[in-house]
Specification:
This protein is an alpha/beta fold. The chain has one domain: Rossmann fold (3-Layer(aba) Sandwich). It has helices at about 10-15, 35-50, 65, 100-110, 110-120, 120-130, 135-150, 170-180, 180-190, 205-215, 220-230, 235-250, 265-280, 305-315, 320-350, 370-380, and strands at about 25, 50-55, 80, 90-95, 155-160, 255-260, 285-295, 355-360. Helix 13 (about 265-280) links the parallel strand 6 (about 255-260) and strand 7. Helix 2 (about 35-50) packs across helix 16 (about 370-380). This is ArsA/GET3 Anion-transporting ATPase-like domain-containing protein.
Length: about 375
């Protein structure tokens, strides 16, 4: 596709107003306005389309709370005041709390005594707070829970920056590999055999295995891990089942993925990566949102023509503001040309993906009015 050809335009309002769309997932690299886009879309869905909407951010930055006029966000949906009054629409916002979500899952699927045993386990305490991949898996749990509640017409998900934004797609398979691994099954065997010590098995093969692992992990950590595995044994199947169910929801027509980028080489490369991954996973890619796009007031006046005109005025000895204005226009026109060329690379690879360009704003968005302005810009026909 050449730079003068255009992909189909993304009709955001059609997505936000469609009762069959229940989840919108915004993904993209860091610093492209993804959080602002997610909040603006959620706000527009509530105000313009009368939908009961919740926006869930997995990004721990405070930008979402500040722009929505909230002092803080946590694991519980918080109502955004002044939105949806007098209409059917409403807006709530929340931020994923990884450990609290894990705790809630344990409480929901075990008895109080078993939950207390799990919470006291040092390995659980570490895993629920810092273990790699736990955040993405808990995002799947929280999304699945919000979806199952049936309280919301639309759930807008603001994913973490960079490629980790799609790590939650790998959560079910990664969790399955972890739970079905040989080491974990060996650790679980003593507990299933009657609670004997993890080092108490008489088989020579496990004796060798336990000594090696003990040297690597240390006796106490291995004991903590064994206790954690034994305590969670009855929950493992539920973890896998719920994650796989949420994965299937993300593949369904009720979900719309929006890739967010800026017209810069790195951001567009990341956008292409996201689009390819979504295609491989059969996830419904609804379109591309390109933020901070620069335009000129006189598109017919090229950068070269502007510079030539400014040079002519200089040679004539004309000290007029027109020459400076022409140079400013030339710089902006050249920037707009570069941005179009960069974005055309995505369009050439994905010619059928609808796209919308959002003009660069004069200031950062930090309140509800700013979000309304962004929502209108994204949805402008």
């Amino acid at each position: 596709m050449s730079s003068d050809q255009h992909p189909p335009r993304l009709d955001v309002d059609r997505i936000l107003s469609d009762p069959g769309v229940r989840i919108v997932v915004c993904c993209g690299s860091g610093g492209v306005g993804k959080t602002t886009t997610a909040a603006a879309l959620a706000l527009r869905a509530a105000e313009q389309h009368g939908r009961r909407t919740v926006v869930l951010t997995i990004d721990p930055a405070r930008r979402l709370a500040q722009s929505l006029g909230l002092t803080e966000l946590d694991n519980t949906p918080r109502p955004v005041k002044g939105v949806g009054e007098g209409s059917d629409g409403s807006l709530h916002a929340m931020m994923l709390d990884m450990k609290r979500t894990f705790d809630e899952v344990v409480l929901a699927h075990t008895d109080p005594a078993k939950a207390a045993e799990i919470f006291a386990n040092p390995f659980y305490q570490a895993m629920s707070s810092t273990f790699s991949g736990t955040q993405e898996y808990m995002a799947m749990e929280k999304l699945g829970h919000l979806h199952a509640q049936g309280e919301w017409d639309l759930i807008v998900v603001d994913t973490p920056p960079s490629r980790s934004a799609l790590d939650f797609l790998d959560a079910p398979a990664r969790l399955g590999r972890f739970l079905d691994g040989k080491m974990l099954r060996l650790l679980l065997a003593p507990a299933r055999a009657g609670g004997r010590s993890v080092f108490g098995l008489v088989t020579a093969s496990f004796g060798v295995f336990s000594r090696v692992v003990q040297k690597v992990l240390g006796a106490q950590l291995l004991t903590d891990l064994s206790g954690f595995v034994a305590a969670l044994d009855s929950m493992f199947g539920g973890f896998r089942q719920r994650a796989e169910q949420t994965f299937q929801i993300l593949q369904a027509d009720e979900t719309a993925f929006l890739v967010v980028a800026t017209p810069e080489p790195d951001a567009i490369r990341e956008a292409s990566y996201f689009a390819r991954r979504l295609g491989e996973e059969r996830m419904p890619l609804a379109g591309l949102v390109v933020n901070r796009v620069h335009t000129v007031k006189v598109p017919g006046l090229t950068a070269d023509a502007s510079l030539s005109g400014a040079a002519g005025l200089d040679e004539a000895g004309e000290q007029v503001p027109t020459a400076d204005a022409l140079r400013i226009h030339a710089a902006l026109a050249a920037l707009a040309d570069r941005e179009r060329a960069v974005t055309a690379g995505f369009a050439a690879e994905f010619p059928h993906v609808p796209t919308v360009a959002v003009a660069a704003q004069p200031a950062d968005v930090h309140d509800i009015d700013g979000l309304r302005m962004i929502g209108s810009a994204i949805s402008r026909p």
